[in-house]
Design brief:
heterodimer, A: alpha+beta, Alpha-Beta Plaits, 3-stranded antiparallel sheet, 5 helices, 15% strand, B: alpha/beta, 8-stranded mixed sheet, 8 strands
Chain lengths: 150, 134
């Protein structure tokens, strides 16, 4: 038996959140954005509006203390209309994060899935500079080819 | 939701998109409720005659200003230099703002450009009424 007030119940909620959202819809588009902590309430409000606009549930949770949130757009991937709405909503999830002074990844990185959205977060000259640095260090492009850059 | 456009705005949109020919131009319409009071042009980063994608930094800067000023995004506007005033397959696939209208300026007939407004919901195109205040 845990003593009251040690936060274990809160941690249990956090641990079970990710599997629990599967009861809302079978599939999720799982993104991780970050906004300045002062904008977390605005961002959550925007996500509420977004789920109305796209008619898909959006569940946000995670490292809210540092402004990093996991945004889960819940869909049934076997429903093509819902899948398309979810994909469209994804772009707005990122756009709103950048608009509020944040960026498109808090901890997961850009990888392959987010590379098409990198131009939302970085100006073309910044991306070009990053590509030049990568090319200088990895002239044969053998380190994570196809990742990060659109 | 139909939209009314403030006096002179329609002419401003047509003049701007005409000046961008033969490329597609794009921008935002903003205001309150269903009254458009402002046209914000955004660079088409694809610089293409057949498709557009709004330059992200400009788009995000504009959306940020609208939020700060308490204005609402009401429509995405773009031109079809040669195509009809109707959403293309690409427009329908890239309808990232289902909550707002899509206004298309067609120069298929260069002398008499046509401006029409639509909602795109679940791949379905529904025409709305655009009323220019004279």
């Amino acid at each position: 038996m845990q003593e009251a007030g040690d936060g274990s119940e809160l941690w249990a909620i956090r641990r079970y959140l990710s599997p629990a959202v599967g009861r809302i819809r079978p599939n999720k588009i799982n993104e991780d954005i970050v906004v300045p902590r002062s904008r977390v309430p605005d961002y959550l409000e925007a996500m509420e509006a977004l789920q109305e606009e796209f008619r898909v549930p959006i569940v946000c949770f995670g490292h809210v203390g540092d402004g990093n949130m996991h945004v889960n757009v819940m869909i049934d991937a076997s429903d093509s209309s819902e899948r398309e709405r979810g994909d469209c909503a994804k772009r707005r999830v990122f756009e709103l994060a950048v608009e509020m002074g944040g960026t498109i990844s808090g901890e997961h990185g850009i990888g392959i899935m987010k590379s098409e959205f990198l131009p939302l977060a970085l100006q073309p000259d910044a991306i070009a500079s990053m590509k030049r640095i990568k090319a200088a260090l990895d002239p044969n492009n053998i380190l994570n080819p196809g990742k990060i850059f659109p | 939701m139909n939209l009314s456009l403030a006096h002179g705005l329609l002419e401003q949109i047509v003049a701007h998109t005409r000046a961008g020919l033969p490329l597609e131009c794009c921008g935002l319409l903003a205001g309150q409720e269903s009254s458009v009071t402002e046209f914000i042009s955004i660079t088409n980063r694809l610089a293409s005659p057949t498709e557009f994608d709004m330059e992200p930094a400009e788009l995000i800067g504009a959306l940020r200003s609208l939020r700060t000023d308490g204005k609402r995004l009401l429509a995405i506007v773009h031109s079809h230099p040669r195509g009809p005033a109707f959403p293309s397959t690409k427009d329908i696939a890239r309808a990232w703002y289902p909550g707002v209208a899509h206004v298309i300026v067609s120069f298929a007939s260069a002398e008499t450009p046509e401006v029409r407004g639509f909602r795109i919901l679940d791949g379905e195109v529904i025409e709305i009424e655009l009323r220019a205040i004279v």
